[in-house]
Amino acid sequence: MRTMRHIACLIYPGVMSLDVTGPLQVFASANEERARLGLPSAYTLHLLAESTGPVVTSAGFALHAEHAFHATDPGIFDTLLVPGGQGEQAQFGNQPLLQWLRDAEPRVRRLGSVCSGALILAHAGLLDGHAATTHWADVEALRAFPRIQVQGERLHTYQPGAPHLFTSAGVTAGIDLALALLEDDLGRTLALAVARRLVMFLKRPGDQAQFSPHLSPEASRAPRLAALLEWIPAHLGDDLSLQALAERACMAPRTLYRVFTAELGTTPARYVEQVRLASARALLQGGQASVQSVARLCGYGHPESLRRSFQKTLGVSPQHYAERFG
Predict the structure, then answer these.
(1) pTM (predicted TM-score)
(2) Which CATH superfamily is domain 5-197 in?
(3) Engineering a disulfide at 77: which of 8, 47, 119, 246 sits with its beta carbon 3.0 to 4.6 angstroms away?
């Protein structure tokens, strides 16, 4: 049985440093946790670039690549990660890199992207026919590839047992992805230990939304809904059915539904659910109210409805969430 897994991450000028160091730190911390248990390391980490030596990131400091990708046999790697960053566009036409990625795809057990690194995989043609996500700011660019099944709201698309190609959203979602890979490799107990060490929440499901609707950048691009979106968070205990929202927006229900899906990419009901959940999380984190009060204030009515929403979206109960983050 294979005991040492080699994890490689591609780097290039202008790469986002956290897209690289965040996921790799998860695997490094797994080695540290195993050492505390008297167990050998499970991972060896590698950085690949056009050539060996320092590569300047978008943050201005350099990472050191120990391998040139074109001189490296991808078959030695268990997992290959492609990060995003300001320099990614220069890689879209880097034919030697794109061809190397195509050659590597059938030879590595897992190939995935972090943040807008999905666009590099897309230009290589590797995401055709697959579900994929990326940073919210790059979702429309990913939609330009018609054969990719874009799922813009997800944190990541990795699922154990599914096709070995996967993607993740921006920055910290890469850490969520790495925790999911670690859990699949070595079990939930070790993944939880690493999450605790990194002060992370284990585990945010891959289909969780990338950001709170309160801060949604899409809202600024929906002028017809601006007043309604500002009104909703202050009236979560009210009737927020489609009919009620349509009356508030002075639109027909069918028109409001169409505007929501066109401008925000989601339905009115799902948007309201996201806002209610975000508000409930904020109240529980601040220790400002009991679970029963939070359910009432956020429009869930009964605590059981709140519990179902938390379990479905976060994988934990409101009580557990409050204990952990309150």
Answers:
(1) 0.68
(2) Class I glutamine amidotransferase (GATase) domain (3.40.50.880)
(3) 8
